[in-house]
Design goal:
By secondary structure, the chain is an alpha/beta fold. It has 3 domains: 156 residues, Orthogonal Bundle (Fumarate Reductase Iron-sulfur Protein, Chain B, domain 2); 164 residues, 3-Layer(bba) Sandwich (FAD/NAD(P)-binding domain), CATH 3.50.50; 152 residues, 3-Layer(bba) Sandwich (FAD/NAD(P)-binding domain). The protein has 20 helices and 16 strands. The strands form 4 sheets. Strands 3-2-1-4-16 form a 5-stranded parallel β-sheet. A 5-stranded parallel β-sheet has the order 6-14-7-8-9. Strands 10, 11, 12 and 13 form a 4-stranded antiparallel β-sheet that branches. The relative contact order is 0.12.
């Protein structure tokens, strides 16, 4: 797909909207299927690779209404089956088609307080949009109604009006709930429990809230301003915030219940323990986990060299190992931090990549060089123990493995080298081990994930858990889904107490 100037997309949308605006409510399904899907306007890739401004510019009202008119308002609402938090998707989309943007936001916020975030970073193409009838009718998920883009549009519209509604909070109950971690799961729990009138305290280890949304996702995908504004809503609801507070070190989890009088605790500490490949040379200067690299750039604002003292390794040629969304974020951030060349090295083909197609496309547009069916055998260094090259092997695909993807098989004697000065390992993260290490009452599985029942209840009395600490490294929306289940169970328990 080639880059299309935003003004061209806007002109096309306005012209088409005039054709449908007066009679869109009477359009038949066949006519709605013929409305072309609306492209998302983006920054020019040659410009954006040098800045941290958001790549996707968002729909205009005309583009949003036109895209919304493509919805068939199916009776069975299959899109909702793919939504972990069960948003009334056809309901809010039909309001957009009618131009009732505030009503659309109100529908979304009945089940989700983070629409600006979910609309940007959730993998809709494998969730709500995968089951969309329009996409199935076109035999192409890319032709599904752009549910995520529409969610983003109305959330941004409300914020730009400067009058965001604060959810209603029931009278105080006198019950106290502690939420450990301010990532997506924790924020959802805080909101849903606070709505019921319980006092909520969020404990965050870092100096700023947001969890992976703050330290892991670059601002060119999710601006910090948006995370701040979503969190501000919680503060206005009366949620108490305590930063620089490491539960397990500053205060033990059991003490929150036994000494501080919390009636329930939710653990949402995420999956922040980086995984490495266990190959020669990973201890060289110039090798980073994607977690560290992105945290320095995002949370510690290393990209802002004039106003930040955070050190960042100077890189000219970078190799990123992995092919998920985190790998795409790291590769694209490396470009913005001044790298002249960035390689993404992956042992399968593009078809098997776990990253979102949109993120891969954006990386390609910005000049990231993809090496498929290759993997690093060892990292090489100079006499100063600094990275100067990687030795790689070529692969071919064999039979499918347990994940359903074809297994990569090494081609013998296929070694070759690539000169690089920086290596970023982005092959995943393990669950944060601190809670388990300091709270032996909580059971975990062999990967260190907290084990829970179908209501997100852990083995420890009054303690619930959800998000990446339970799932392993997953998505924002799946973490939110677990947060909603945990909040419902906490509210039920406190009501019965």
């Amino acid at each position: 797909m080639s880059f299309i100037a935003p003004e061209t997309i806007q002109e096309q949308a306005v012209e088409l909207l005039h054709q449908y605006i007066h009679n869109h409510q009477s359009l038949k399904a066949k006519e709605r299927m013929q409305i072309p899907s609306q492209e998302m306007p983006n920054q020019d890739p040659h410009i954006r690779r040098h800045n941290l401004e958001e790549v996707a510019l968002g729909y205009t009202p005309e583009e949003a209404r036109l895209e919304a008119m493509r919805c068939l308002d199916c009776k069975k609402k299959p899109c909702m089956d793919g939504c972990p938090v069960q948003i009334d998707i056809p309901g809010f989309i039909l309001k957009i088609a009618d131009g009732n943007f505030q009503e659309a936001v109100d529908i979304i916020k009945q089940t989700s307080l983070l629409p600006s975030i979910c609309g940007r970073v959730c993998p809709q193409e494998t969730q709500c949009q995968e089951t969309c009838t329009v996409g199935i009718g076109h035999k192409n998920v890319d032709k599904a109604v752009a549910i995520g883009r529409l969610e983003r549009f109305v959330a941004d519209w409300e914020r730009n009006q400067g009058a965001m509604k604060i959810p209603e909070v029931k009278p105080e109950t006198g019950k106290k709930v502690a939420v450990i971690g301010s990532g997506p799961a924790g924020l959802v729990v805080a909101a849903d429990v606070r709505r019921e009138g319980h006092h909520v305290t969020v404990f965050e280890a870092f100096h700023k809230l947001g969890g992976v949304m703050r330290y892991g996702i670059p601002e060119f995908r999710l601006p910090n301003e948006i995370v701040d504004q979503e969190i501000d809503t919680l503060k206005k609801m009366g949620v108490e915030i305590k930063t620089n507070f490491v539960v397990g070190r500053t205060r033990k989890l059991a003490d929150l219940i036994d000494k501080d009088g919390y009636d329930a605790v939710f653990v949402g500490t995420g999956a922040g323990l980086p995984l490495f490949m266990g190959i020669e040379g990973e201890d060289l200067v110039g090798v980073f986990s994607a977690n560290e690299y992105l945290t320095r750039a995002n949370l510690m604002r290393a990209f802002d060299r004039k106003n930040s003292d955070t050190p960042m390794y100077p890189s000219k040629v970078v190799a990123v190992l992995g092919a998920g969304n985190v790998a795409m974020d790291a590769a694209r951030m490396a470009l913005r931090l001044g790298a002249e060349k960035v390689y993404v090295i992956y042992r399968r083909t593009e078809v098997e990549m776990p990253a979102r197609k949109e993120e891969v496309l954006h990386a390609k547009e910005e000049g990231v060089d993809f090496h498929f069916l290759e993997n690093v055998k060892r990292i090489m260094g100079n006499e100063k123990k600094r990275v100067n090259a990687i030795e790689c092997l070529r692969y071919e695909l064999g039979e499918p493995d347990d994940s359903g993807r074809r297994r990569p098989v090494v081609i013998p004697n296929s070694e070759f080298t690539i000169e690089v000065d920086t290596v970023i390992v982005a092959i995943g993260n393990g669950s944060n081990p601190l809670i388990h290490q300091t709270t032996p009452q909580i059971d975990t599985n062999k990967w260190g994930n907290v084990t829970v029942n179908d209501k997100q209840k852990s083995s420890m009395d009054k303690v619930f858990a959800g998000g990446d600490i339970v799932l392993g490294a997953a998505t924002v929306i799946l973490a939110m889904g677990e947060g909603r289940k945990a909040a419902a169970a906490i509210n039920e328990m406190l009501e019965e107490a």
